[in-house]
Amino acid sequence: MSGENITILTPAYNRAERLEKLYCSLKEQTLSGFVWLIVDDGSKDNTAELVKVWQEEGAVPIEYIHKENGGKHTALNLGITRIKSELTFIVDSDDYLPSDAIELIMNYHDKYREKKLENRLCGYSFLRYYSDGTVNTAYFPENEKIDTYLQVRINGGIGGDKAEVFYTEIIKKYPFPVFQGEKFLPEDVVWMQMSEKYNMVHINECVYYCDYLEGGLTKTGRRMKIKSPKGMCLRSKIYLNNEKVCLKVKIKMMLLYIIYGRTSGEKWISLYREVQCKGLYALSFLPGMALFVFWKLKYK
Fold first, then answer.
1. Does the pTM exceed 0.70?
2. How many beta carbons lie within 10 A of that of residue 177, not counting itself?
3. pLDDT single digits (tens) 238-272
4. Looking at the DSSP assignment, which residues form a beta bridge with residue 91?
5. Residue 165 has what DSSP assignment?
6. Whose CA is closest to 25, among 39, 13, 10, 11?
């Protein structure tokens, strides 16, 4: 068994001071043979120089791509097109891995490799822990549960972030949509689309450590999302047009659909036509417009 079938994909933007922690954790992996692909999304710090030093050290095989700044999702798109390994593991630039992360992933992959087609698998979902050893949000209700991201995470009410490892051949089929001038798109836009066809194995094992930093995507919150209203509107529409999404989630997504749709300049009649649950749209229109006005004043 070896880790040659996995690429660790890291989009990075001005994170030179944090990347070293991830680099050190990769040097300590109990299973070698993986590739670390860094896609530099237009950093203005010394990321390129730092990565060059690490490449010369040769402790970890590193591939480096530099591109103009366009947002994490555009960096992921570019990186995924370059990956040739069987598995893709997305790891953010300000996070790091436990020493047995790659070994754990490959052990489970060996277990399920031959069951991929019969279970319609697109990959594996593992736990993220905070650096103090506590789990990010919650454990899965059943270890090694095989079901969709939608059923386990969304309808199951398990929020927050997990550590996803995808079959590269499948994630290549689902590029992140890109809207001109917008630099943010939640990853669940793609995860939800995959849920229409594919399951994941949900595993209660930690392969990822994270802490959310000031200035990171998670911490910048709503202001960042408001600056990318077309992408956020699309996200809501994907949820609303999926008949398997539970009502509680659809109510929330309908309000967001109206808010971000109006923020992007869409007319109310266009928004109405593009969703299947038109009754819910009608019921949510006035509350959604009230929130739209409130957010517009608060975040102008």
1. yes
2. 17
3. 999 999 999 999 999 999 999 999 999 999 999 99
4. none
5. E
6. 10
